């Protein structure tokens, strides 16, 4: 009798599972609402039928002792047709049980049921049946296709101290709608903000709610730039145009509170639901949504710490409809399709941050795509990362000029996975003309990698300082660009970003920001980062911002950010012209690229000291760990490198000569 009851319970569980699947696919018969509606919501995730402790438990899912043909409980009918008991037993043991993954006594057998909600392909077709094989996690009930990925997934649970008994799924947070069948949310915390992630969040082709842990540096840099603008004026209207999980906008609202009014948008309905759930997870109210007792399934809770607006809308549409003080663009790939809309309604002296992840076209791996998206011709060079940064700034400048606006570049970062550009917007045709004049062609020698920006009216053959054009057969010089000719950093803005990073305990990006400060001033003196220097004026296209080193004086500084008008603004621009040489020199040289064969070159820090003693400005660069940014020409750079390089064969030749002389006969 106990065996019959167990079989009936298993059969009922499998029947409920099948009914739920038919509801999800909208192709089954209506489910009987007898027991399903009357059961209260549980806080634990029911274990899937593919998770067993013994092979007998897997065989008990179907009556193998009965007569007639039986269907496999873990395979759909079209994959494995009904067969007799002896064949079905071999099928369960050899296919499902043989490749199980074990965790704390539980065996997770492979499942072929349509549990995974995969995104359709570009042609609109669903994934084929061979892609449906997967495992169900015993801890969080997530579905994972590969066995090795499931083993790694379980190791992460062990490292976090999560077991079957202690780990609860997304049911701890009151959701408006249940999670898809077979999927559970993974909770990730970054900068004090919790977000829920789907199991396939790292694959943008299979998930709308894409999330990358490698972009943490990018998110912190964007946050610091917004924090600096919030000190100048508040409240700010901020837009996170590509929300995905909403983590960036939630970090803004949670840490900056009343200084910002955050709007998070995404075109995907799945992302919008996920963002709203993440708002409730962080005690942030959605603008226009219910809160407290009015929220379904919620008890009396504390007052929300902030309010954000979540909208399902295309990024170009909302940027045309509304005005913002701060706009962040971070699509998956290139950003050129959204630049015109971003500059259309951005407010004066506002900031636009642009993150491009299409490194294939930016880093000269796909020149045809680069020409199509950015209208630039580039080749692979030793300074390819700065070349990509200047190319992206040039595209931003052209988009701003089309809207009669100019830009002031505040920050440019190019790392392995992304290129980030932060610019301040300055209205007016005069500012637009000044920005447009900073777009120039670059002449590059493909043999020695000498480079110089091309001035108007100059020929290519008369521009390069090297003599490769005449000493080598053929043409060695190529024109690249058009590229941004102006500076890539603003020292005063970077100093305030460093203060914001210290204030919000962002230890990860502080070394990077310090490197950017030294690079912007083209110096190796660390005292310029933390030194107690006097008041300095940082000018941004006529905008005077006082930068102070001490915290008390910084709070008393005038950070209104208003543009100087009339003669005062003109005088500031006139004073800037003699100091133009203080801007950091364009591009850098790699010490390994120009090393001399048969010579041991000096250590990089020593070499920087030698260049400084020779009278050149020099600094490290974040673009390349072996790069040196200097105002010296390539010939001068090589001459200093040759002067302080030591031959590698000196010791070898001396020892060889000594051994030969000792072996001579008397």
Automatic annotation (TrEMBL):
Region (Disordered): 1-43
Compartment list: Nucleus, Nucleolus
The entry's keywords: Isopeptide bond, Metal-binding, Methyltransferase, Nucleus, Phosphoprotein, RNA-binding, S-adenosyl-L-methionine, Transferase, tRNA processing, tRNA-binding, Ubl conjugation, Zinc, Zinc-finger
Domain C2H2-type: 135-162
Superkingdom, natural source: Eukaryota
EC number(s) reported in the record: 2.1.1.216
Biased composition (Basic and acidic residues): 14-23
GO molecular function annotation: tRNA (guanine(26)-N2)-dimethyltransferase activity; tRNA (guanine(27)-N2)-dimethyltransferase activity; tRNA binding; zinc ion binding
Protein family (similarity comment): Belongs to the class I-like SAM-binding methyltransferase superfamily. Trm1 family.
Protein name per its UniProtKB record: tRNA (guanine(26)-N(2))-dimethyltransferase
